[in-house]
Amino acid sequence: MTLAAMTADVSGFTIHEAHRRHQRNPKLAAMLILGSALLLAGCQTDNTSESMIRVERAQGSDENIASLSSVIASNPSDPEAYNVRGSAYGRAGEFRRALADFDQAIKLNPSFYQAYANRGLVHRNMGDQQAALADYNAALQLNSSYDVAYIGRGNLYRQANQLDSAFNDFNKAIQLDTTDPRAYHNRGLIYQARNDHAQAIEDFSTAISLSPSSAEPYNGRGISYVAQGDDDNAFSDFNTAINLNGKLAESWANQALIYERRGEKAKAQKSYSHALQLDPKYEPARAGLARVKAMS
């Protein structure tokens, strides 16, 4: 029986904290604090197009962007303001505008390593992997302890199936004591690909402790539990993933897999069908539904 594929891609924009000089400009300081709320934190699964980020329009809203544009109009020489607005554009999926803002931030401050990493993420989401790699490398040349850039570059390597290089980057971020769950989640995926499910479970568990409201590490850990024959813990994880985010096709397909293994064909068929309603192209659900129907 083929396990549902787990190919999570978790990405995030980071906002460089306001320098002390911004305390003299309360409006800018407030907008930079707002920008920190635009982080793409946590874990995300994307089974059809790993190069796309989850868009949360409310946090990349026209209203927020308009406010940030007002800040830039008052502070046209401030690279941090461009970085914040670029992150907001990234959240809204307006990648070309995001690129323009990160370009301007870097032009104003060539040592702005956070802006390089943010621009690298946009390049990756636009499908320009070489430009993304160059930006992540530039960020790390400027700051060799920047965990976000290691995680971003690791995702590039993982997408290119360069698993050893990806593993090294995620390891480096973890060695830097990152609290970013993406490092553990993505390293867990590599352990999983290597059939080292005990280590995968450990990493997914750490990701869960760092981001308990994210469904994806529960799915990841559940799949490794299935591989170990621990269907009870797997079922618990898949149900938790559904409770946290009922719109992920893979969570329903994973739940269906346990029903299928238990011989509960009607429940398996219902969950596989629901997964396909959420994502008609999700192949593990399509294959699972075909298996269950063939057994009926």
Structural class: mainly alpha
CATH topology of the largest domain: Serine Threonine Protein Phosphatase 5, Tetratricopeptide repeat
Name of the level-1 CATH class of the largest domain: Mainly Alpha
- Shape, please? elongated
Protein name: GlcNAc transferase
TPR repeats: 79-112, 113-146, 147-180, 181-214, 215-248, 249-282
Pfam families: TPR_11, TPR_16, TPR_2
Keywords: Repeat, TPR repeat, Transferase
Protein described:
The radius of gyration is 21 Å and the shape is elongated. With about 300 residues, the protein is an all-alpha fold. Helices cover about 65% and strands about 0% of the residues. The two termini are about 15 Å apart. It has helices at about 25-35, 60-75, 80-90, 95-110, 115-125, 130-140, 145-160, 165-175, 180-195, 195-210, 215-225, 230-245, 250-260, 265-280, 285-295. It has two domains: about 1-180, Alpha Horseshoe (Serine Threonine Protein Phosphatase 5, Tetratricopeptide repeat), CATH 1.25.40.10; about 215-295, Serine Threonine Protein Phosphatase 5, Tetratricopeptide repeat, CATH 1.25.40.10. The chain has 15 helices and no strands. Helix 6 (about 130-140) packs antiparallel against helix 7 and helix 13 packs parallel to helix 15.
